[in-house]
Sequence to fold (1001 residues):
Amino acid sequence: MIRQHFHRGNQSFRDKIFALDFLLIFFILLLGVISFFAMYSTEQGKLGYYTQSHLYRFFIFFILFIIVSFFRIKTWYKSAYLFYFAVLILLFAVDIFGVTASGSKRWISLFFINLQPSELMKIALIIFLARYYYKIPTENVTNLKYIITPFFAIFVPVLLVAEQPDLGTAVLILIGGLAVIWLTGFRIKLFLYSCFFLICLLPVGISFLKPYQKTRILSFFDPERDALGAGYQIIQSKIALGSGGIFGKGFLQGSQSYLDYLPEKHTDFIFTLFSEEFGFVGSTALLLVYVMIIYRITVIGRQSRNNFAKLYCFGFATAFSAYVAVNMSMVLGLLPIVGAPLPIMSYGGSSMLSVMIGLGFVMSCKIYQQEDVN
Amino acid sequence: MLSFSKTFQSKSKTITRRMFILSSLKIAIFVAIITRLFYLQISENIKWRTLSDKNRLREWKTVPQRGIIEDYFGTKIAKNTQVFQLHMIPEDVPNLEELFFKLSKIIDFDKRAKTNLIKRLKKRKPWETIIISDNLSWSEFSRLNLFLHEMQGIKPVVAVARKYLEDGSSSHIIGYVSEMSVKDLENSALLREINVPGLKTGKNGLEKSLNEEMIGQPGLQRFEVNAHGKRIKELKLIQGTAGKNYRTTLDIEVQKSASELLKDKSGSICIMDIYTGDLVAMVSSPTFDANKFVHGIASKDWQDLINNEKKPLINKSIAGLYPPASTIKPLVALSALENDVISPNTTTECRGEIELYGHKYHCWKEKGHGFMRLREAIKQSCDIYFYEVARRLGVDRLAVTANKFGLGNKVLDILSEELTGLVPSTKWKLKNIGKGWLLGETLLAGIGQGYFQVTPIQLCLMAAQLANGGHKIEPKIIYNEQALQPTIDASSKRFKQLYRNQENVKFVLDAQFGATNEPMGTSYGSRHVKSEYIFAGKTGTAQIRSITEEERELKLKQKDLPYKKRDHALFIAFAPYKNPRYAFSIVIEHGGSGSSNAAPIAKKIIKKVLDRDQLRKKYQTDLIQEI
Fold:
């Protein structure tokens, strides 16, 4: 069965290898190396638990990424709904059997790892919508008939995740979904109307927020309000970033992180740590690596013959940009601290798994770019 | 099929177009992020770097060495000594209970100390050093070191603490240091500036007056600390500077003997160099052990001190107020002679009592002294004679002389506890009591009773300024190196004359010689026979209540009276009689009569001082040669 998906087609295995996007692979590996050094620095230059397990994960998920790449895009097209519903079931399972950590129920225990299905949903929703819209002509997109399914497909998982509570991931899932809808040619007017409608609903939404989420958002607008409590993270993050200067304090010299002033330095604030040690030059370079990855994904999408691949690649590129932009804006004090990891850099298995699978789909689009899904 | 392909193519175009719009948006967002990075890391870099250093660096002040106080001969009265302390870093202790159990076997660490320590532990961070004991004995300390390998997280430390001479003879002058209080901090800008945990401050005596000079300048240790306040590494160390040392004019040996002589009594002994004004000794009794205050006095000891009716904490030499009684008679005589109201030959008959202004006034000698002239009257301390002298002199002229010779003014002005005393005058009474002066009050002033209030140090200064021939001196307790050259020559221009005719001063001194060295003199019983010890003095017995006629009939003995009602015994003296050098004042609170209670003490202390006179002089010349 697997052989069928793997070998049938008019490309030889050699051709497929050559069809890989080596530039994209290079940047992913580069990011992996950078993330290793950043993780090594969070442990004050010791090859500790976090560094080791981050390294193992990267290694395993990179192999997974290659494996996913070699499956035909048609296979992924066909299993898109299945993937989506499987993740959705997992999300419901989290709600019931989930593991609670630091006040929120996000994980599900799968014997060997704690999986965070909300991270997988980021990819699952994009591929679901890409398949859904693949067959719908542009002029029908705005039909009410074709709005209902995507609406539920987006808001069921978003609400489930928001309720865990995990505002950051919920917003990122939402952005991924909206990006695909936007790409299908959904009427701009309607987009604006629904945005307006959402803004009107915002006060209602806020009343559903947990108290800690509210203080986080309030402290975004005025971090000094509670400098040692909710505003602490953002103040310390800005101090670390700002004190980095042009060239940074040097590798393993970031006093803010080394002396524990920086919170969550393995996960959400890994960029702060990196930026403190490597300064403006290093941060811009890192951002450039991300831009290159996004650029490569976009190019792959453009080169694809079928619209499913286009929708998926552009959707994923947009979502990926959103992950990077939200995380960086957050630590730079441009957005409230909502909890959004930086792809591949941040410590966290599910996040990396989801990004790697997403990239694997992209690579599959690249290898089979001449194929159609039907 | 064609139409499908067409829609497919148009859809593809739509997607691509929409993708371009999105890409521009992404570029805009990334540019915004880079701008923000630029703003934080380059434009505002200095601000954030400062904040980062503020986070990272913390400074600790180190306790400076306090200046020491020596006596005239270099004996250290207040010094810094090694104390053995036991420190603990709670986070390094694997098992507190086990440690406490082991400690209780090795040092004095009982249940109470344990609960106290646990209470303190709760308020601190586990990596902050806590002091378990700040004053271990040597044997405890050495035993601790022996068993140290069995106990983790504790550290025996040799630290510096204030140490005073054990005998306590100088406790009142030196005072003591103790933990800083909120009030201390409020009162002193310097203390607020250099406040270091563990820094002690002077609470009274010289420790308080000279606090700011003696306290020194704290050092500085700069550490890198982590977010939890734990010190990671030392980055900088600036040594503090020790405080200024002081040499006093005191002779600790004399201090000790004087204190010994006053043991179990309440009172004061002051001894002054009559030319230099150096205080050789100033003792107040009962005394206390200043060392008890350094590490915080125990509640029981404190209660004992404040409930003692002899008031050990008060420095009676400068803050005890007494009527001068008959010790003022030489001064009254001098004042009268200087004002030409009497001559040495003025004669008055003493019949034991006299009626003046419709009131009966008594002499201490019931039967009376008979016909008296001035010298005899001083020698035998005849009250009736001095009523007459006072009547002729008037209180205001007496007040002028008394003020000139040191009564009614602060003598040292270095110890904050010092009191001014009171020399009454008509003006004073009108201003402070609001009533006119009564003539009878003049008579009481003439024998040093009534409103008169003096401190023992004032009496000593008075005796000194009479003994040096009537010249003004500046009493001091801190040895001043500029004034090293003592001017023994009385006629030197450096001395300000307090007299009009020096013959009058000489007469008064001679009368005091009579009082001590001639039969019938009030202190004849306490005289020295050996020529080098011969001194001259004047007794005084201060009544602290008026004696009723009834009591006079009963002839109540002093020892039959309750303690608080007994007379104060006073004595002033100067020695040696030929070429005098030292003046003395002795006050025994509720001690009875001056001649039988104060004068014998004077006899002993005078011998001690004169025995050490050569040594003192030699030390002085030695020092001059050194310079």
Observations:
- Residues 484-491 of chain B have pLDDT under 50 and may be disordered.
- Residues 49-75+165-229+239-248 of chain B form a domain with the Penicillin-binding protein 2a (Domain 2) fold (CATH 3.90.1310.10).
- The interface with chain A takes residues 7-8, 10-12, 14-16, 18-19, 22-23, 26, 29-30, 32-34, 36-38, 40-42, 44-45, 47-49, 51-52, 55-56, 224-228, 232 of chain B (CB under 8 Å).
